[in-house]
Amino acid sequence: MKRILVYILAAAALFTSCGTKGYEYTEQELILDSGGNKVYGVLYHPVHIAKAPLIVLCHGFGGSYVHGLQYAKEYAPMGFAVYSFDFCGGNNDNRSDGKTTDMSIFTEKADLNAVLDQLMQLSFIDKDNVTLIGESQGGLVAAMVAAERPQDIKRMALIYPAFCIKDDWVKLYPQLTDMPDGLYYWGVKLGRTYLKDLYDFDTYGTIAKYEGPVAIFHGDADTTVPVEYSIKAKEAYKNATLTIYPGEEHGFKAGAEKKTLNAIKKMLQE
Questions:
Q1: How far apart are CA 249 and CA 258, in angstroms?
Q2: How much is the average pLDDT of 152-171?
Q3: In terms of Cα–Cα distance, which of 155, 150, 120, 164 is closest to 134?
Q4: Cβ atoms of 116 and 2 closer than 8 Å
């Protein structure tokens, strides 16, 4: 069993009382391992539950664990253990190890697999009730992992998942040597590692191997990841729903964000 290092925020667990609205929960830093790299994350754990169902949150390109905390604070009071973490090399202010120039969707897939392996070993986690929630690039990574280990993932929610990544990058750089080494994209410095394994990647053939329930949320004004990619994903999956928000872009406004949080909550209750 891999060694799991736990650091408690402010030298003590932070308890949040939810009163009649739900379970009390603790918030603590949980440092895991991915191939020798430190993975930084924050675990929300409901107290008084011997075996808590688990939600793992996957941030998008250039994002961080902070982007998942809204989900954690929404679902921990429901009795879910929720873990939000930084992918290795996933952003410029990364609290996990790793360089952005060494990051790709495939290294992030390895990180998520390592995170799941270690969280599912914890005595207070119900390893038979695991949910993945991913945004943008994190949505694609979550979909890849669910397809690889469908027996471990009970359900999945994907928010404007970036199923366009292969098409966009291979169209831009038809050969690996066409890509400058040290390219900046959205302010993040990338290396050729990001591109090198994309050429043989079958996006929809891969993700369709997962047959569990999938809820997809997308805006029809998204120019970063056109909604057509999620429409095609719904067709590829055997058990998927797709919610399309008129006028929403890549990153929802408050109204659509709240609707998505509530829709996922309903999915979790089912």
A1: 15
A2: 98
A3: 155
A4: no
